[in-house]
Amino acid sequence: MKKLGILLLSLVFVANTFAQKKEVQQGHTNQNKFKQLKDEFATPNDQRTASGAPGKNYTQQKVDYIMDIVLDDEKQKITGAETITYHNNSADELAYLWVQLDQNMRAADSKTPDIQTDNIPEKISKARFDQSFPEVAFDGGFKIMSVTNIDGSNLSYTINQTMMRINLPKPLASGATFKFNIKWWYNINNHRTQGGRSGFEHFEDGNNNYVIAQFFPRLCVYDNVEGWQNEQFWGRSEFALEFGDYTVNITIPDDHMLGATGVLKNESTVLSKKEQERLATARKTFDNPVIIRTQEEAEKIEKGHSKKTKTWKFFAENVRDYAFATSRKFIWDAMAVAINGKTVMAYSLYSKEANPLYGDHSTRAVAQTLKTYSKYTFDYPYHKAISVDGQMGMEYPQICFNPGRPEADGTYTDRTKYRMIGVTIHEVGHNFFPMIVNSDERQWTWMDEGLNSYVQMLAMMDYEKGYPLSRGLPKNIVDYMNGDQSKIAPIMSKGDNVYSFGNNAYGKPATALWILRETVMGQELFDHAFRTYSQRWMFKHPTPEDFFRTMEDASGVDLDWFWRGWFYTTDVTDIGLKGVKKYYTTEGDNEVVFTEDASEGLGFSDKHKKYHYEITYNKPGGLVMPIIVEFTYKDGTKERKTYPAQIWRLNDKEITKVFSSSKEIENIAIDPDLETADVDTTNNNWPQDKTDKFDQFKNKIKG
Fold first, then answer.
1. Does residue 314 contact residue 329 with C-beta atoms inside 8 Å?
2. Which of 70-74, 113-117, 490-494, 602-606 has the lowest average pLDDT?
3. Residue 12: predicted pLDDT
4. C-alpha radius of gyration, the chain, whole number
5. pTM for this predicted structure
6. Which of 121, 220, 469, 523 is the most buried (most CB within 10 A)?
7. Which structural domains are found in the chain, ordered by start?
8. Helix ranges restricted to H, 377-445
9. What is the DSSP letter of 449?
10. Residue 265 and residue 379: Cα distance in Å, rounded?
């Protein structure tokens, strides 16, 4: 009987043991916001180091061009002949070369219009109708007349839309060069009616302003990251290009004024004696622009239409592209800019329709850009920078095309003024990113547009105290980040594939850098790291990893959490105050007792020597950010405390912090200066506003 009892007890014990057995939990991958980016980053090698610097075996190709260009003003046509010398500096043997044919997006058989969705509107303007439904499709693609070896024999080639493959007679060995010729022509588009980043503007007086770029077959980049960068050009995202030397002869009507990339080699034959004398004065004038060709002179010239031509000769060393602008309508002014003991020229070319706005601000904006960007990156290495009245925003080495014109009576609003200055600074700034720090614009648009938009902010503030910044400040990106997630892409997205191109490639990355400088890293650490990146990658091809790694390497600040959140996700910032408990202390013989004061608000029912607050912060938003807290005391004084973002490392939802003070607190506010792009500030104060969100919405609607 005793044995039976023991057996029964054993069975009960075993049964209970199995019944209480814990269910096996499933594992999970590391989702911590502070996980390092090793999985996302490319593996460092002897060409790109783990520090973000070019490696000891870093290489890049070089491409030199000799070009003869003829612009036909009567037919709005460009004809060109170029000799290309390709230097294979890579360790690879190349079986073929890839050439960009950007103008083919405007060919009659272009596929570019076919990828755009459209519908029938109720009504549109006549100009828009003529553009959208032309009687005859505009044929603006390249007409390749010949591709030949240097001895004149035919060279095999294959055209695939906006790309042309040069089929080499034999593979090009590492360290070898290949020289060949291309002859071509194309019809120039009217960029004012047909759109585009290049073209002409026609005036009622019969004259044309030409802003010409992407006008010649150009070699694609071949590098150790992507190989050939030969994706099709659909009209938005641009290509990085190889650096090289350009010898260019441009034939135009002899009454035109022209600006172009490179040093003008025949100044005495294309400029009048008076213009040469004025230019010599401008080279010594650092305070105000000097007029080289006046409006009165330009107005007189534009009334005639010379049938004669003249050839302007240029040489550009170590540039990644080429562009020019020409018109008989152009006024020209110039000013010298001092960059650390070196003189650089700031030029502007503009028609009378853009004066006095351009005369008042264009060259001064160019000069300010060169000064500010040189301060934060590297000394501007070229001899000039030109702003052209092109009525678009587009950049090329040493020259850019910008918008902005006054009213017919010569007056202009602040809005027109600041738009013109802002775009000019932005486009001139592109000389630094990506014309010198030559990132892949097609793959990572933010690397040139975002970085440039950030430095643009600094230049605009230098240009005028109180300059109204519309893009880059954290508060200005909130609406976009808090918008429809189905229409938002991470910054680390290809430009062709994003919905809101301006916010994605310009606004959000500029804001991210602003927050890094002003809130996360501090100005000194950020500026040093940013300057290090800029100087490391001058005249080279950086990747996002090179930027991310350099910013950490040169500052000693772990930023993987920031890159992961801001660049790889579409998470938003929302940090709030969930609750506050108040405590006072009483001292015993060997202990201190904390007692909660349950009275309403942040005040205490009795007066104490020390006040202790247990504050719970929560994070409804996905982005990890520092917690910036401002405490307002009952006596009206304020104190600010910033908790590093790493405070969220062990709990991504909420955390508590104790704050002790000898004074009672009246109010607690998170992010009082709107530094973090917080999308919901209704939870940023304690005591909380009793007005519910519906009431707030109603009040907002009422205005």
1. no
2. 113-117
3. 54
4. 32
5. 0.92
6. 220
7. 60-262 (2.60.40), 267-306+330-432 (no CATH), 438-570 (1.10.390.10), 576-702 (2.60.40)
8. 414-429
9. H
10. 24
